[in-house]
Design a protein that fits this description.
By secondary structure, this protein is mostly beta strands. It contains no helices and nine strands. A five-stranded mixed beta sheet has the order 3-9-8-5-6, with no helix packed on it. Strand 1 and strand 2 form a beta hairpin. The protein is globular. The protein starts with a strand and ends with a strand. The mean pLDDT is 94.
């Protein structure tokens, strides 16, 4: 089986970095979310049908795709003002 490509997102006091990530269409991708803050976070996306509580200073792995071209939103469910997007090309 071929190795999945990985995409990295960091969550800190400034929100998600980067705020937008790009992935290829029709491919499954490993999404690694690192919570660098001192508080737990919950990566949530209705568009991606994913949610994962991430303890402080921990990295979680989620799998997304294959997805059609478009833009998919995600946010921190513990602070809904912290948002980001996945752009699928």
């Amino acid at each position: 089986m071929a190795e999945l490509s990985s995409v990295f997102v960091t969550l800190n006091g400034d929100g998600f970095q980067p705020k937008q990530i790009s992935i290829p269409s029709d491919k499954k991708v490993k999404l690694r979310v690192e919570n660098k803050s001192d508080r737990p976070a919950e990566f949530e996306s209705y568009d991606l049908n994913r949610e994962k509580v991430i303890p402080p200073h921990f990295t979680a792995t989620l799998y997304v795709g294959p997805l059609s071209k478009g833009t998919y939103e995600f946010f921190n469910d513990f602070d809904k003002s912290v948002k980001g997007t996945v752009k699928v090309d």
